[in-house]
Amino acid sequence: MTMITSAAPFAERRETPVLSDQDKALAVSLRSTIRNATSLFRSLDGRHRVTSARLSLMGLILKGPQRVSVLARELAIRVPSVTEQVICLERDGLVERHPDPTDSRAVLVAITSAGRKLYLEELEARTVALGARLATLTDAEKVLLADALMVLNRVIEG
């Protein structure tokens, strides 16, 4: 008897597409570039008061009170990881937890006024730091980068 161990239902499985050498090389290059960009963004953490991970979480909460499970799904991480981050942010007075009025077993995480202020300050500081790097590009390179970002967004959106 053959046992299927995948968590995904059989109907959801997709065949691996056949890629050209050019597409494979581009995929490898894109993964590498995204990894390097992630490292760059994380390197900014040491200069600021909140990590990139917590800043991402705060950005989601800024949209309105959210359940931890929703935050975890949006960030594509486990619920315990989000809970740990929420506890740290709550300890620092940046978010608050309140009972969910629609489900007494759940809580909603909301940003505080101090959290909103810090989020906006951190976002601005990171934008300025990245902008300083972009300022070293030529006008032609900036146009090329803007065009590439549109293509990258199409790739991300699928």
Topology:
Elements: H1 21-43, H2 52-62, E1 66-67, H3 68-75, H4 79-91, E2 95-100, E3 103-111, H5 113-134, H6 139-157
Helix pairs in contact: 2-5, 3-4
Pfam families: MarR
Keywords: DNA-binding
Protein name: DNA-binding MarR family transcriptional regulator
The CATH architecture assignment of the domain at 49-157 turns out to be: Orthogonal Bundle
Q: Rough shape? A: globular
The total of beta strands comes to 3
Strand content: 5-15%
Number of helices: 6
Largest sheet: 3 strands, antiparallel
The sequence of SSEs as H and E is: HHEHHEEHH
Amino-to-carboxy terminus distance = 37 Å
**Rg, please?**
20 Å
The CATH topology of the domain at 49-157 is Arc Repressor Mutant, subunit A
Helix content: 55-70%
Spans of 5+ residues with little confidence (pLDDT < 50)? 1-10
Structural class: mainly alpha
CATH superfamily of the domain at 49-157: Winged helix-like DNA-binding domain superfamily/Winged helix DNA-binding domain
Nearest-integer average pLDDT: 89
CATH class of the domain at 49-157 equals Mainly Alpha
Widest β-sheet, arrangement of strands:
1-3-2
Q: What descriptive keywords fit this protein?
A:
DNA-binding transcription factor activity; WH_DNA-bd_sf; HTH-type_Bedaq_tolerance; 61% helix; disordered N terminus; 11% strand; DNA-binding MarR family transcriptional regulator; Arc Repressor Mutant, subunit A; three-stranded antiparallel β-sheet; 6 helices; DNA-binding; mainly alpha; 158 residues
